[in-house]
Structures are given as structure tokens and as C-alpha cells.
Amino acid sequence: MLGGHRGAMARVWLWLVKRRRQAVVACLALAAFGVWGVAVQSGLVFGALTWLGFGERAAVSAAIEMTPAAGLDDVATTAATTLEAVASEATDSRVSPTATRGDGTATPQRVAAVTATATHTPQPTATPEPPPTPVPSYARTLTPSPVDERFLRVDQDRQEMLVYEGETLVRTIAVSTGAPYENSFTPAWTGRVGAFWGKAQFRGTDLWADYIWYLFPGATGSILIHSVPYVNNGDEKVYDRPEALGVEPASKGCVRISPEDAEWLARWDPVGVPIEITRYSGVILPAPTAP
Predict the structure, then answer these.
(1) Which pick of 33, 158, 239, 245 has the fewest CB atoms within 10 Å?
(2) Rg of the chain over all Cα atoms, to the nearest angstrom
(3) Interacting residues of 194 by C-beta distance below 8 A, sequence separation 6+
């Protein structure tokens, strides 16, 4: 009996020795199949394929296989949608192979890309300064004339004559206009300087003036521009109230100026030049109270 068992075991061992190559191959195949099953079950294979660049193609193939009833158009639409999703994921993230799984195996990780957006901070806007307000001057109220035209303005409140050449004030002359009484005040007037009369004696008086320009007719006689009148006293001229020039109205209605200013005005030649005489804003007294 014992000899029979030994013989059977010897035959089995002989068979195993003869078939050892096939047995080793079979054992290796079983081991490889087991490892592959564990890898597929744990997702390691898909992760490795994705890291090697085969994940996108596998996803497209899986999408096509999952739609067996769809036509060609449906299959193309599904594949395109999957490709867009994969491309979007690849654009919005970067692959970092530095992370490891619990078993020590490197696993690719996706790190979201952060794009910094510059924020524009508005700069304060400087508030423009308002233009300076021009200081009013003795504006010419007469109808505007050409820029190169000369002009005279008699300001009765200031007792002065302004001489303009165009827009330039070339001379200011002290004057004395008519005394503020009903029979001697100088009325406001706008016109042109009349003829130059030169030297003449005032009618019914001993008064003379060396420079006279006609302006317009008044209530009691002509209204003129003339030098301060005087009385001859031998070789001496005695002037009538020269101290009133530029201070107060003191004439019988004419515009008085100094002999020096009259000589300058004669050289300037005002004949035909526009002139404006402003209204006197003081109180005009009745004529009987005049001295």
C-alpha cells in the first residue's frame, strides 16, 4: 500500500517537473490579472493614463460607447461636448505631480490657476480755477467804433476827460463842467467834436480863451470845449477859477481844460472825433439861487 502511494506521488512530481514552465507562466498570469483588477478598482490606471495624456481620448471613447442607440449626429454632439469639458478643465487648471497617494504612489493634482486683475484707482481731478473777473473801467458807452478810431469821454461826476486811441487810453485831462444850476449845468450829450475856433473873446464879457472847439447849442449859448478863460491884466493873464479843474463843476455850461492840456489837445486834433458827455448825478439847483 505504502509503495503504491509513493509511486503515485513520484508520478505527480515527475509531471510537475515536466510542466514547470507552463505552471510558472500560469501563476504569473494569475498574479498580473489580480494586480490589474486592483488597479482598475482603485482608479490608479485612469489616473496614470490621464497623466500620460490618454485620459481625454479614453473619455471620448467612453462617451461614444455609452450612446449605442444614438445616431451619428448624436454621437458627434456628445463627443464635442465632452471635448469642450476636457479642454475647459485643462485651461482652468494646471497639473502638479507632486502630491502622493496614501500608499506612496504619485498622483497628479489639479491646481486652479489664479489670474490677477489690475484694479484702476481713479485719480482726483483738479477743479479748474475760474477766470479772473475783469475790473470795470470807464467803458465807452457810445456805439462801438472801429478799433483804430479815436474817442473822447467826459465824466462829469469825476470831472475828467478820457482820451482814447482805439481801445487805448492815451491821456486823462482834468475838466470843470457847468455849475449845477438850471441855467448853467452841462447836459449829457453824444456826438462829434465840431470846428476849432482858436482864440476868441466871450460875448458880453472881458474873458478870453486861447483854444476853443465847438460842440452843440445850449439853452443860453453854445456848449464848447475850451481852455480856462482869463482876463488880460497888462502882460499877465488872470485865469477864472483854475483850481476847480478836476474838482468841481464851475463853468457856465462849457467843458473847461487847462491851457497846457488845451495845447496838447490842439496837436492831437479832436475835430470830428466822437465824444460822449455823461450825465451829472448831483443835485441841479434852481437858477435864481445861482451866484
Answers:
(1) 33
(2) 61
(3) 213, 214, 215, 216, 271
Q: H helices of the chain, where?
A: 2-18, 20-42, 44-52, 55-65, 72-92, 259-268
User: In DSSP terms, which residues pair with 105 in a beta bridge?
Assistant: none
Neighbours of 46 (CB within 10 A): 15
Average pLDDT along the chain: 73
Interval 240-269: pLDDT, tens = 999 999 999 999 999 999 999 999 999 999
Q: How far apart are CA 34 and CA 199, in angstroms?
A: 143
Report the SS3 class of residue 163.
strand
pLDDT at 220: 85
Give the three-state DSSP class for 220: coil
Q: What is the DSSP letter of 288?
A: G
Domains of the chain by residue range: 2-97, 150-289
